[in-house]
Specification:
single chain; binds NADP nicotinamide-adenine-dinucleotide phosphate; nine-stranded mixed sheet; about 200 residues; globular; alpha/beta
Length: about 200
Protein backbone atom coordinates (compact mmCIF):
# COMPACT_ATOMS: atom_id res chain seq x y z
CA UNK A 1 0.00 0.00 0.00
CA UNK A 2 1.19 3.52 -0.89
CA UNK A 3 2.59 5.51 2.04
CA UNK A 4 1.02 8.89 1.53
CA UNK A 5 -0.30 11.80 3.57
CA UNK A 6 -3.99 12.54 4.10
CA UNK A 7 -4.86 14.63 1.03
CA UNK A 8 -7.19 17.63 1.11
CA UNK A 9 -7.99 19.40 -2.15
CA UNK A 10 -8.80 23.06 -1.65
CA UNK A 11 -9.96 25.58 -4.20
CA UNK A 12 -12.18 28.59 -4.64
CA UNK A 13 -14.57 28.77 -7.57
CA UNK A 14 -16.97 31.24 -9.05
CA UNK A 15 -20.68 30.51 -8.93
CA UNK A 16 -20.45 29.55 -12.63
CA UNK A 17 -17.74 26.97 -11.82
CA UNK A 18 -14.43 28.56 -12.79
CA UNK A 19 -11.34 28.65 -10.54
CA UNK A 20 -9.74 31.52 -12.44
CA UNK A 21 -8.55 32.63 -15.84
CA UNK A 22 -5.33 31.73 -17.63
CA UNK A 23 -2.27 33.72 -16.47
CA UNK A 24 -4.43 36.05 -14.37
CA UNK A 25 -4.59 36.44 -10.62
CA UNK A 26 -8.27 36.70 -9.69
CA UNK A 27 -9.40 36.85 -6.05
CA UNK A 28 -12.83 35.19 -5.78
CA UNK A 29 -13.70 34.82 -2.10
CA UNK A 30 -14.18 37.16 0.87
CA UNK A 31 -11.87 37.87 3.82
CA UNK A 32 -13.68 35.40 6.10
CA UNK A 33 -12.87 32.61 3.67
CA UNK A 34 -9.29 33.82 3.44
CA UNK A 35 -8.96 33.55 7.21
CA UNK A 36 -10.56 30.10 7.26
CA UNK A 37 -8.06 28.92 4.65
CA UNK A 38 -5.19 30.18 6.79
CA UNK A 39 -6.65 28.27 9.76
CA UNK A 40 -6.83 25.11 7.62
CA UNK A 41 -3.21 25.63 6.55
CA UNK A 42 -2.09 25.79 10.19
CA UNK A 43 -3.73 22.39 10.79
CA UNK A 44 -1.73 20.45 8.17
CA UNK A 45 1.91 19.53 7.62
CA UNK A 46 2.22 20.83 4.04
CA UNK A 47 0.61 22.81 1.20
CA UNK A 48 1.25 21.92 -2.46
CA UNK A 49 0.92 24.04 -5.62
CA UNK A 50 2.00 23.79 -9.25
CA UNK A 51 4.42 26.10 -11.03
CA UNK A 52 1.51 27.72 -12.93
CA UNK A 53 0.00 29.00 -9.68
CA UNK A 54 3.33 30.38 -8.48
CA UNK A 55 3.74 32.24 -11.79
CA UNK A 56 0.18 33.57 -11.91
CA UNK A 57 -0.48 34.41 -8.24
CA UNK A 58 2.93 34.55 -6.53
CA UNK A 59 1.35 33.17 -3.29
CA UNK A 60 3.18 33.17 0.05
CA UNK A 61 1.27 30.11 1.31
CA UNK A 62 1.55 31.11 4.97
CA UNK A 63 -0.88 31.33 7.89
CA UNK A 64 -0.50 35.08 8.41
CA UNK A 65 -4.26 35.79 8.76
CA UNK A 66 -4.73 33.24 11.53
CA UNK A 67 -2.74 31.58 14.31
CA UNK A 68 -0.27 28.72 14.11
CA UNK A 69 2.85 27.80 12.26
CA UNK A 70 3.09 27.99 8.51
CA UNK A 71 3.40 24.46 7.11
CA UNK A 72 5.97 23.18 4.66
CA UNK A 73 5.37 24.51 1.13
CA UNK A 74 5.69 22.09 -1.79
CA UNK A 75 6.05 23.24 -5.40
CA UNK A 76 5.89 21.08 -8.55
CA UNK A 77 8.35 22.74 -10.92
CA UNK A 78 9.40 20.02 -13.38
CA UNK A 79 11.39 22.29 -15.65
CA UNK A 80 12.83 24.40 -12.81
CA UNK A 81 11.63 27.59 -14.46
CA UNK A 82 10.47 29.47 -11.37
CA UNK A 83 12.43 32.46 -10.16
CA UNK A 84 13.66 31.98 -6.58
CA UNK A 85 12.50 35.52 -5.86
CA UNK A 86 8.89 34.28 -5.85
CA UNK A 87 7.26 34.63 -2.42
CA UNK A 88 6.86 30.86 -2.00
CA UNK A 89 10.65 30.66 -1.63
CA UNK A 90 10.93 33.33 1.06
CA UNK A 91 12.09 32.58 4.60
CA UNK A 92 8.62 32.50 6.18
CA UNK A 93 8.51 28.69 5.92
CA UNK A 94 10.43 25.76 4.47
CA UNK A 95 9.87 24.81 0.83
CA UNK A 96 10.35 21.58 -1.08
CA UNK A 97 10.63 21.75 -4.87
CA UNK A 98 10.02 18.66 -6.99
CA UNK A 99 11.85 18.95 -10.29
CA UNK A 100 12.95 16.77 -13.20
CA UNK A 101 16.15 18.78 -13.68
CA UNK A 102 19.07 17.03 -12.14
CA UNK A 103 21.47 19.96 -11.94
CA UNK A 104 23.23 22.18 -9.46
CA UNK A 105 19.96 23.20 -7.84
CA UNK A 106 19.48 19.66 -6.59
CA UNK A 107 20.58 20.45 -3.07
CA UNK A 108 19.41 22.36 -0.06
CA UNK A 109 19.62 26.14 -0.40
CA UNK A 110 18.61 27.94 2.77
CA UNK A 111 15.04 26.88 3.46
CA UNK A 112 14.57 25.37 -0.02
CA UNK A 113 15.13 21.66 -0.60
CA UNK A 114 15.17 20.19 -4.12
CA UNK A 115 14.08 16.64 -4.95
CA UNK A 116 14.43 14.85 -8.29
CA UNK A 117 12.06 11.86 -8.02
CA UNK A 118 13.05 8.61 -9.76
CA UNK A 119 9.75 8.65 -11.63
CA UNK A 120 7.56 11.69 -12.16
CA UNK A 121 4.33 10.51 -10.58
CA UNK A 122 2.24 12.04 -7.84
CA UNK A 123 2.45 8.71 -5.96
CA UNK A 124 6.26 8.92 -5.92
CA UNK A 125 6.22 12.54 -4.73
CA UNK A 126 3.63 11.78 -2.04
CA UNK A 127 5.69 8.87 -0.82
CA UNK A 128 8.80 11.11 -0.60
CA UNK A 129 6.77 13.65 1.37
CA UNK A 130 5.53 10.90 3.68
CA UNK A 131 9.15 9.88 4.24
CA UNK A 132 9.90 13.53 5.10
CA UNK A 133 7.27 13.36 7.85
CA UNK A 134 4.29 14.88 6.00
CA UNK A 135 1.11 13.18 7.23
CA UNK A 136 -1.45 15.70 5.93
CA UNK A 137 -1.35 18.01 2.93
CA UNK A 138 -3.58 20.62 1.29
CA UNK A 139 -3.46 20.75 -2.50
CA UNK A 140 -4.11 24.39 -3.38
CA UNK A 141 -3.97 24.22 -7.17
CA UNK A 142 -4.00 25.33 -9.81
CA UNK A 143 -6.18 23.71 -12.41
CA UNK A 144 -3.67 21.19 -13.86
CA UNK A 145 -2.49 20.04 -10.45
CA UNK A 146 -6.00 19.65 -9.04
CA UNK A 147 -7.03 17.77 -12.18
CA UNK A 148 -4.07 15.37 -11.82
CA UNK A 149 -4.93 14.58 -8.21
CA UNK A 150 -8.59 13.97 -9.09
CA UNK A 151 -7.73 11.90 -12.21
CA UNK A 152 -5.43 9.69 -10.11
CA UNK A 153 -8.05 9.49 -7.35
CA UNK A 154 -5.48 10.85 -4.92
CA UNK A 155 -7.73 12.75 -2.53
CA UNK A 156 -9.41 12.04 0.78
CA UNK A 157 -11.31 15.27 1.24
CA UNK A 158 -12.09 18.41 -0.75
CA UNK A 159 -12.87 21.84 0.64
CA UNK A 160 -14.43 24.12 -1.93
CA UNK A 161 -15.19 27.79 -1.43
CA UNK A 162 -17.95 28.95 -3.75
CA UNK A 163 -18.00 32.69 -4.31
CA UNK A 164 -20.98 34.69 -5.50
CA UNK A 165 -19.01 36.17 -8.41
CA UNK A 166 -19.45 35.04 -12.00
CA UNK A 167 -16.42 34.76 -14.31
CA UNK A 168 -18.29 33.68 -17.50
CA UNK A 169 -15.14 32.01 -18.88
CA UNK A 170 -11.82 30.60 -17.72
CA UNK A 171 -10.32 27.54 -16.04
CA UNK A 172 -13.02 25.02 -15.14
CA UNK A 173 -13.15 23.74 -11.56
CA UNK A 174 -12.36 20.03 -11.05
CA UNK A 175 -15.27 17.59 -11.25
CA UNK A 176 -15.52 15.58 -8.06
CA UNK A 177 -18.61 13.63 -9.16
CA UNK A 178 -20.16 13.49 -5.72
CA UNK A 179 -22.27 15.66 -3.47
CA UNK A 180 -20.89 17.65 -0.53
CA UNK A 181 -21.17 15.96 2.88
CA UNK A 182 -21.46 19.35 4.55
CA UNK A 183 -22.14 22.90 3.44
CA UNK A 184 -22.14 26.20 5.33
CA UNK A 185 -22.23 29.91 4.56
CA UNK A 186 -19.49 32.42 5.27
CA UNK A 187 -21.31 35.65 4.50
CA UNK A 188 -21.25 35.84 0.68
CA UNK A 189 -19.33 32.57 0.21
CA UNK A 190 -20.47 28.97 0.60
CA UNK A 191 -18.06 26.36 1.97
CA UNK A 192 -18.56 22.81 0.71
CA UNK A 193 -16.85 19.80 2.28
CA UNK A 194 -16.56 16.61 0.20
CA UNK A 195 -15.25 13.18 1.17
CA UNK A 196 -13.92 10.86 -1.51
CA UNK A 197 -16.83 8.41 -2.01
CA UNK A 198 -14.35 5.52 -2.39
CA UNK A 199 -13.38 6.01 1.26
CA UNK A 200 -16.94 5.89 2.57
CA UNK A 201 -18.08 2.39 3.43
N1 LIG B 1 -9.39 29.42 -7.44
C1 LIG B 1 -8.41 28.77 -6.83
O1 LIG B 1 -8.60 28.20 -5.75
C2 LIG B 1 -7.06 28.72 -7.46
C3 LIG B 1 -6.00 28.16 -6.74
C4 LIG B 1 -4.74 28.11 -7.33
C5 LIG B 1 -4.57 28.59 -8.62
N2 LIG B 1 -5.63 29.13 -9.30
C6 LIG B 1 -5.45 29.60 -10.67
O2 LIG B 1 -5.03 28.51 -11.48
C7 LIG B 1 -4.18 29.00 -12.51
C8 LIG B 1 -2.93 28.16 -12.54
O3 LIG B 1 -3.29 26.85 -12.89
P1 LIG B 1 -2.49 26.05 -14.01
O4 LIG B 1 -3.29 24.86 -14.37
O5 LIG B 1 -2.08 27.00 -15.07
O6 LIG B 1 -1.14 25.67 -13.25
P2 LIG B 1 -0.84 24.75 -11.97
O7 LIG B 1 -1.79 23.63 -11.89
O8 LIG B 1 -0.63 25.62 -10.79
O9 LIG B 1 0.62 24.22 -12.34
C9 LIG B 1 0.72 23.36 -13.44
C10 LIG B 1 2.16 23.04 -13.65
O10 LIG B 1 2.65 22.26 -12.57
C11 LIG B 1 3.64 21.39 -13.05
N3 LIG B 1 3.32 20.00 -12.76
C12 LIG B 1 4.25 19.10 -12.45
N4 LIG B 1 3.71 17.92 -12.21
C13 LIG B 1 2.40 18.04 -12.42
C14 LIG B 1 1.34 17.11 -12.35
N5 LIG B 1 1.51 15.84 -11.99
N6 LIG B 1 0.11 17.55 -12.62
C15 LIG B 1 -0.09 18.83 -12.94
N7 LIG B 1 0.89 19.77 -13.04
C16 LIG B 1 2.14 19.37 -12.77
C17 LIG B 1 3.70 21.57 -14.58
O11 LIG B 1 4.72 22.53 -14.85
P3 LIG B 1 6.24 22.07 -15.08
O12 LIG B 1 6.29 21.51 -16.45
O13 LIG B 1 7.02 23.29 -14.86
O14 LIG B 1 6.50 21.01 -14.06
C18 LIG B 1 2.38 22.21 -14.88
O15 LIG B 1 2.40 22.98 -16.05
C19 LIG B 1 -3.93 30.46 -12.23
O16 LIG B 1 -4.74 31.24 -13.07
C20 LIG B 1 -4.35 30.62 -10.79
O17 LIG B 1 -4.82 31.91 -10.52
C21 LIG B 1 -6.86 29.19 -8.75
Amino acid sequence: MLNKPYIILKYAKSIDNYIGQKNKSIWLTNNYSKRLVHKWRAEVDAILVGSGTVSADNPRLTTRFDFGNSPLRVVLDGSLNLDVNNSVFNNEAKTIVFTKKNNKHQKTKGKIKYFVPNCWTLEEMLSILHREGVRSIIIEGGQKVLKSFVANDLWDEARVLVAKKELFMGLKAPELNCKPMKEFRLLTDTVQIYKNPKLIR
